[in-house]
Amino acid sequence: MKFRKRSPKTSINWDNFAFFASEWEDSVIGNIDEEYNRLVEHLHYSSTEAESLQVAKRRLSSETLELIRQLGIARAAGNYQQTSELAKLCREAIKEDLKERRAAVMNEAAEAGKSTRKARRSFANFKTKMTSLRRPDGTVTASRRAMEKVIYDFYSDLFDSHVYLPTHHLRQDEYIAPSVLPSEIRHAITSMKDYDIGNYRPICLLSVIYKLFTRVILNRIGRILDEGQPCEQAGFRRGFSTIDHIHTLTRLIEVSREYKMPLCLTFIDLKKAFDTAETEAVIEALGNQAVPTQYIRMLRELYDSFTTRISPFYKEECLREST
What we know:
By secondary structure, the chain is mainly alpha-helical. It has helices spanning 14-21, 32-50, 62-77, 80-111, 116-121, 144-159, 182-190, 208-227, 243-258, 279-288, 293-303; strands at 9-12, 51-54, 125-128, 133-134, 140-141, 315-318.
């Protein structure tokens, strides 16, 4: 019985990668797509030159692998009794090896001061599958072509602009955005019912360079945006909690009941609040928050004339025990 060899794992020496990446030279190409492709090729070349082989730890012991080999021989020979006995031994041996591997990973995480919860979570297996979707008329379809039509119509309507907003004119300032530092890039890297399409959270596959660039911009303007928020805004802010507001609201209800005063509370829950936000409204809000115009112009160009390709896929993620 032959065992299929796994592809060797590689690791990247980030110092070498930074050295090769720093050899990038800007060109005068007028086509931004060609310039982007050239940058991606250079980054691929840098990562290839900086990678080295990584020794992977085996999950199964040599004794277990020998039992699996004997099981294959017995099955090929048609010896059903021996096959049954060896299969039982293999299951027990594999179970014991994986148990020891889990314990070793947990010990390594504990000794390194890492989160044992994350280490335990890495052993979980996740399988999800989109089998059917409901049409707007209430009928349910399991056809892949019809499901793609439902997905296309849903996100086309979701991302379409339903409100006319005039173009917000940006003010002129003297601010010049500095060059992106390597430290900013490192910081950016680290830092329902199945048939209802509205219950699915899409995975947006964006360019890695795009995500790093927008993360750098967010890190730069984050302090400006945070300082411009009123003290009543507690959600989505670092260092703030809605617990204080909940306590205030509870106290307000108690006082109204104590003095028998009428009280009216309004709770607003916007459907797909972030996805339905108008781009020009966001641009105007950034301008009102005194964000430098150059950053606002960059963000506007990122959202100008962009397109999205939607494709449903089956997710089958089984993390290895050694990860």
